[in-house]
Specification:
816 residues, elongated, transmembrane helix, alpha+beta, 26 helices
């Protein structure tokens, strides 16, 4: 019996080649797009789930409020927090402190820069599942100046060729020419889906036992530390979080310690990657909004493909009416007819799945390059989707597609009354016509919404790229600091001499250094105020140490007073007393115009300073963040990067000359550089990726919708062949015929536009709210999306309509 169903289904597919091709093509594109998106979603949702304790690990976040306003929303907090929580709450069974380390690792003559690691408590090794290849995870990081290397780093430093790393254990390496570290373990490289990614792990106790940095041990004043805690299985973290307000009052007495109200929160480890809107982030982050949007788009695309099948199958019900009538007269039951048409649906979906898998294999490499990941169908099928088996899920999706796209047409066709059909008295029901119209509206509503979304993302990113930042980032080269040089009384003079020498190089215009460059986080100070009034409000400000050339290098506008000069700098912190404010600070302190602040004293960093200048506000970070108060200090550091404004003509020769000078003044250091505009724009990487993926898969949705519209217009033309012939004989022009065949579809597209517009506005306006500086969604976006949809629909329909209009009317009138 089933063999007969398949044979009949195959014959029907061959008989209606064009309609079959349209159905298979639409489903193939839909399934292929769905599989690609599922790969991306599967990878993003898998972050940190390799940890055996993942469901019980949380990171501590810290919000600070000053004068009732949130002034810091960060992942950093005090070194004592983890231990204090474990002491205060029996629900906390373990904790680990984490602090980033960026150093140059040295083994003899071999130096490796650009390495990132973490200083961690030994408990980190038991809380997290980073497997050691060799070494004892129970005590590998219990002693100061001990280090664990990743497999890749160990191979690079010691030229290990095989899998035996035992010979590396016990050897000593240097970090930034400091005290030597003893290698006590080798661990496997951190998985790509780990939000904490590192090349090495240092013993955290090194900070306070060797460096004598006492605040790193147990302290409630210095907030430059990161904490992860482990709860007892089954603990409700929200219930524990509710106790943290009392914890804050107990340890901080309101705002007596930090000058701000402290609020501590717990973020599940599973959310650290996708749900981070925090400052001072040390992990790899992405956007949950992008991930869930892609999953929704995948569902919408496959839905459009199924709608195509239902539309075309029910539209052809008139042609198959006599077939059904004959089958019923011959004794076929309704159940047998339903099975027959479901078999056809199964065959089409199966063929579409096979083609989709081939399409995915063909486009996998470009897709991986787009998302900057190494994904594959094998990865998807092996890792699943947040605990769900993807093979089973895919079978379920195809099964659902077969049922949804096959059951209704089968039900409609099997319901024909054979006597009326065989007498030629069957007419398509108005319900079927209304359903097809509703499905076309649904398809194009989804399509129009996706087009609107793509235009909004494009417009926002264009706005971001064109917006004035208050600084000039173009042609600025950043040279990483000379980390291997110790700060001493000669450092400032050497740094100044290097800058003067670099300016003598052709194509080098200006040179400056600073603690932080645009795009990077800056530190904060929480006691900004006007001196002399104990009751005066205290405010929070950002801070940066800069050289005199910093303001001209970045074309920052000086509003009042003067820039720093060499006399403002001193190797002794106590002898520095001049500062420059940005305009935001002057407004905060109540000065009506910038000039009023010049010559005044302000309190910051625990003492009074003289204001010598005021600069215009500028965007240190992306336009997702508002402008903040900023204080510039005349300070140098061995960790200050050089900002070099260059002419990019003959850049290779220029870079060689810069390297020569750098090596001359700071021998033994690694010369490493990058262009600032590229680095700054990385802040928008998730948004740019979102825009690209949104646009590409919206195009897929448009393609599938057009295939469906093409099939329906082809069917409508065939159904009205004789009518077209009559109209032509009576004098109808080609344009009249095209309008006749097109107007109903265009009307449906316009209805889809009306439905889609408010939905798209709501969703995209919500996305734009993540930006402190954003576009307003203007009417032209909706007009452009509507016109695009109409033009696409017209282009799809017109080919068949024009062909029908140009046909010989005599042949049309002979059509039975």
């Amino acid at each position: 019996m089933f063999k007969n169903y398949f044979k009949t289904a195959w014959r029907n597919l061959l008989k209606n080649k064009l309609f079959s091709l349209i159905n298979i093509a639409g489903l193939s594109v839909g399934i292929a797009a769905c599989l690609l998106i599922l790969q991306y979603v599967s990878f993003q949702l898998s972050f940190d789930r390799f940890n055996k304790n993942v469901d019980n690990i949380y990171r501590v976040t810290n919000d600070r409020y000053q004068n009732g306003k949130l002034i810091q929303h960060g992942t950093i907090t005090y070194s004592a927090i983890g231990k204090a929580m474990q002491d205060d709450f029996p629900e906390v069974i373990n904790h680990a402190r984490v602090r980033p380390s960026y150093g140059i690792l040295i083994n003899g003559e071999k130096k490796l820069g650009g390495q990132s690691g973490f200083g961690v408590d030994n408990s980190f090794l038991s809380m997290f599942s980073y497997p050691l290849i060799t070494g004892d995870r129970n005590n590998a990081l219990t002693n100061p100046n001990t280090i664990i290397l990743t497999e890749t780093l160990a191979r690079s430093l010691f030229d290990v060729r095989g899998s035996d790393f035992q010979g590396v254990i016990g050897k000593m390496i240097l970090i930034d020419n400091g005290k030597p570290y003893k290698i006590t373990g080798i661990c496997k490289d951190a998985p790509e889906n780990s939000h904490l990614w590192f090349s090495y792990l240092l013993s955290y106790c090194t900070f306070y036992k060797t460096w004598e940095w006492k605040q790193a041990d147990y302290d409630f004043t210095d907030s430059d530390f990161w904490h992860y805690i482990q709860l007892k299985p089954g603990t409700d973290h929200k219930a524990l979080e509710a106790k943290l307000d009392a914890f804050s009052q107990r340890h901080f007495q309101g705002n007596k310690i930090s000058g701000s109200d402290e609020k501590f929160l717990l973020q599940p480890l599973t959310k650290a990657h996708l749900y981070s809107d925090y400052e001072y982030e040390i992990g790899k982050i992405a956007s949950a909004r992008v991930v869930w949007s892609m999953l929704i788009i995948a569902a919408l695309i496959i839905l459009i493909a199924w709608v195509n099948y239902i539309n075309l199958a029910t539209a052809k019900s008139v042609e198959r009416a006599k077939e059904v009538g004959v089958r019923k007269v011959s004794g076929a039951t309704k159940t047998q007819l339903v099975k027959q048409f479901l078999t056809e649906s199964f065959l089409i979906n199966l063929m579409a799945l096979v083609i989709a898998l081939l399409v995915v294999l063909l486009v996998q490499q470009p897709f991986n390059e787009l998302i900057h990941q190494h994904l594959s169908l094998t990865y998807l099928f092996h890792n699943g989707l947040r605990g769900f088996n993807v093979v089973a899920l895919l079978i379920g999706i195809i099964g659902l597609g077969i049922f949804i796209s096959g059951f209704y047409p089968a039900f409609v066709l099997s319901s024909f009354r054979p006597i009326l059909v065989l007498k030629g008295k069957y007419f398509s029901s108005s319900k079927g016509i209304h359903l097809r119209r509703a499905l076309v509206v649904t398809q194009f509503a989804i399509t129009v919404a996706l087009i609107i979304g793509s235009l909004v993302v494009y417009s926002q990113m264009r706005f971001v790229s064109k917006q004035s930042l208050g600084i000039n980032l173009s042609q600025v080269l950043i040279i990483r600091p000379p980390q291997l040089t110790q700060f001493d009384s000669t450092f400032i003079s050497r740094e100044s001499a290097l800058q003067n020498e670099l300016k003598r190089i052709p194509n080098v215009h200006l040179v400056a250094n600073s603690w932080s460059v645009p795009g990077n986080e800056m530190g904060r100070d929480f006691d900004l105020s006007l001196p002399g009034n104990k009751e005066a409000a205290h405010f929070t400000t950002r801070k940066n140490g800069v050289s005199p050339e910093y303001i001209p290098v970045y074309d920052i506008k000086l509003l009042a007073g003067r820039n720093f000069d060499n006399a403002d700098y001193n190797a002794d912190w106590k002898n520095i007393h001049n500062i420059i404010l940005n305009e935001n600070v002057t407004r905060l302190l109540g000065f009506k115009i910038p000039q009023e602040a010049v010559g005044k004293q302000i309190h910051v960093e625990g003492r009074e300073w003289d204001v010598v200048g005021v600069v215009a506000d500028f965007h240190q970070k992306s336009l997702r963040y508002p402008l903040e108060p900023l204080v510039l200090f005349p300070l140098f550091s061995t960790y200050s990067a050089l900002s070099v404004r260059v002419n990019t003509k003959d850049v290779t020769q220029t870079m060689a000359a810069i390297k020569t000078k750098f090596d001359q003044f700071f021998p033994g250091n690694l010369f490493d550089y990058y262009f600032l505009d590229d680095s700054y724009n990385q802040q928008y990487a998730n948004d740019i990726l979102f825009g690209k993926i949104f646009g590409i898969f919206s195009a897929f949705a448009v393609l599938i919708a057009c295939l469906g519209l093409l099939g329906l217009s082809l069917f409508a033309t065939l159904q009205r062949t004789k009518e077209i012939g009559v109209r032509k004989v009576l004098g109808a022009s080609v344009s009249n015929i095209v309008l006749l065949l097109s107007k109903d579809f265009i009307r449906l597209v316009l209805v889809a536009f009306i439905i889609a517009s408010p939905v798209a506005w709501f969703v995209m306006n919500n996305w734009l709210n993540d930006f402190a500086y954003r576009i307003q969604i203007s009417a032209w976006i909706f007009i452009a999306a509507g016109l695009t949809a109409v033009v696409i629909a017209l282009a799809t329909i017109s080919f068949q309509a024009i062909k029908a209009a140009l046909a010989n009317p005599v042949k049309s009138l002979r059509t039975e």
